[in-house]
Amino acid sequence: MKVSAMRMLNITKVGLMAIARNKMRSLLTMLGIIIGVACVITMVAVGTGASSSIQATINSLGSNFIMIFPGAAMSGGMRSFTGESKLTPEDVTAIKAECPAVSYASAGTRTNAQIVAGEQNWGTQVWGVDVDWPFIRAWNVADGDFFTDVDVRTATRVCVLGATVAENLFPAGDAVGSSIRIKHLPFKVVGVLERKGGNMMGQDQDDQIIAPYTTVMKQLLGSPRISMIYISARSADQVQEAQNEIDALMRQRHRIPPGQESDVNMRSQEEIASTSEQTSKTLSILLGSAAAISLLVGGIGIMNIMLVSVTERTREIGVRLAIGAKGRHVLLQFLLEAIALSVVGGAIGVGLGLLIPNLVTRFAGLPTQVSTGSVLLAFGFAAAIGVFFGFYPARKASRLDPIDALRYE
Amino acid sequence: MAPPQSAPATAPVLEIHDLTKVYRMGEVEVHALKGINLSVEQGEFVAIMGPSGSGKSTLMNIIGCLDRPTAGTYRLDGIDVSRLDRDQRAEIRNDKIGFVFQSFNLLARTRATENVELPLLYGNLGLTAPERAKRSREALARVGLAGREDHYPSQLSGGQQQRVAIARALVTDPAILLADEPTGNLDSRTSEEVIGIFQGLNDAGKTVILITHEPDIAAHARRVVYVRDGLIWRDERIVQVRAKHPDAAAEGPEPAVAFPFTIAPPEEVVR
What we know:
- The complex is a heterodimer of chains A (409) and B (271).
- Chain A has 409 residues and is an alpha+beta fold.
- Chain A folds into two domains: 2-57 and 275-407, no CATH class; 72-262, no CATH class.
- Chain A has 13 helices and twelve strands.
- Chain A has helices spanning 2-21, 23-59, 89-98, 133-136, 149-153, 163-169, 213-221, 239-254, 269-312, 314-322, 327-364, 372-398, 402-407; strands at 65-70, 73-75, 78-80, 102-117, 120-129, 141-144, 158-161, 179-182, 185-193, 208-212, 228-233, 264-268.
- A six-stranded mixed β-barrel of chain A has the order 4-5-10-7-9-8. A two-stranded antiparallel sheet of chain A has the order 2-3.
- In chain A, helix 3 (89-98) crosses helix 8 (239-254) and helix 11 runs antiparallel to helix 12 (372-398).
- With 271 residues, chain B is α/β, with parallel strands linked by helices.
- In chain B, 30% of the residues lie in helices and 24% in strands.
- Chain B contains eight helices and ten strands.
- Chain B has helices spanning 56-63, 86-96, 112-122, 129-142, 158-170, 188-203, 215-218, 255-258, and strands spanning 14-25, 28-40, 45-49, 71-76, 79-80, 97-100, 176-180, 207-211, 223-228, 231-237.
- The radius of gyration of chain B is 19 Å and the shape is globular.
- The model of chain B is unreliable at 243-271 (pLDDT under 50).
- At the A-B interface, helix 1, helix 10, helix 11 and helix 13 of A face helix 2 and helix 3 of B.
């Protein structure tokens, strides 16, 4: 109906006029909602930022990555983690030959050493790996080349330096082609790896030296065992399949009957990812709910002010009722006022919520990522709070008796 | 709902028959009105007088459709309004009654013209914003406030504020103007000015009902109804010797002479 539509418009105007007339109080009322909305968006942005940076780190492990390392060993019924590896280079060869879901496999063995290059020296870890390793870790050589298959077979004393090691031993940047001493043995530097940054634990992944595993085993460690195996499955879908194949093969090779605990452990990239995803999800929920509570408190603030406003404007309500406003017109007026307060507050909050994460990133160095979902959720929640907390005061106003309201001092 | 059709113009604008009002205060029943009969014709200027507790305010609330009688009938502009519900009474108030209050009751920080437009916002007339503004300006001009449309209440004197309130009451062109102690907050000179406005409107044909306890003010009406103990005690038509201007009043006969209650025993007169 045209008349009633026009009347609704008029009443909307009346409600908005009341806000404009009390600018300072309206702003203070909105403050709770502003802070709440900005908080929700910022907190979720920080949470999302943290989780996506963890995700990026996990992805830096390489694609479809599986890690095999020694598990608990049985010796005479006593189960313990001896630290003694049962893994051998032959296991790697067997995996490559017999597991179709595996595309790359590399032995891995490790030692710590003090490295000397001319005047410089640097303590770091030396990893012995196979030529598949750069493909598994998706880690390329920035300068020079990776060592070759021949180098592995003949256990040549060649090595590839991590970026941090190269920087410390060769500040001039002339690492490739130079010679370094690892445990007094001379090694030729054939390449320098690209920089990869910290891992999940915050360790610098660039602080290492990579050499053929045969060289590390025979010349640096003197051990027939390797400490782990790096695997890359053919595709993301085949990670589980690869794990099953490897488990069966390892049981067969290490003579462990089904049902008994294997002497090797496997962790896939997904497993590592899901653990940390869980952590960051918990973090997001925690931050988000703290912010949601502040939004709720903001809503209560609106109700508080609206109740005060209804009391304060009792005579005004009385006049409106006397000159022909119906209960529902008054209800609508006050409800619209509450909704307008929370919507405008919500909008300002969204503005701040888009700004603050940028400041957090700039000044605190934390990664942040504003998600559309959180903006919509926070804004929608703010509007809903306006309706919810505005309704009670508005109903109270609409039920006033005009005679009492006009007499109210 | 649409209000029923108005009766022919010959019928009284206000017709009250055997009206009673009983308040229940816990166990005690208070009979505020005990059977009021009152008829007001179109174009009358009636002052309702009475001491506090007489039932005068209750009668005004019922006449103003702010309250419902316990028994009896009340026809306003031909419509029986005594049994209407809350929303229906709101429509009647908007359509048929123009309220003027003792304490003006203008919205603060709201321009005079916006205050006057207020009843139109709730009405069924469906006026556009320019139409409302036009009506508001016309109403303000009728009370002599042309040129002050954009003033805020705080920028106006008490008399001017009350005139804005009268304009607000006039803007819907109601059947009756119902003024509750309209001069109670004004000094005597401004009171004369405001009562003059009512007289002018009455001269132009408006039905005015004035509730007051001041004999001087009641003296400006054409008819005085005196309420006591919930009943109409006296109902007198005054031979009104009306002065158009307060200044001119001194030259003619004193209006108070024509007012019958000034000779009543003091204890029967309001304070």
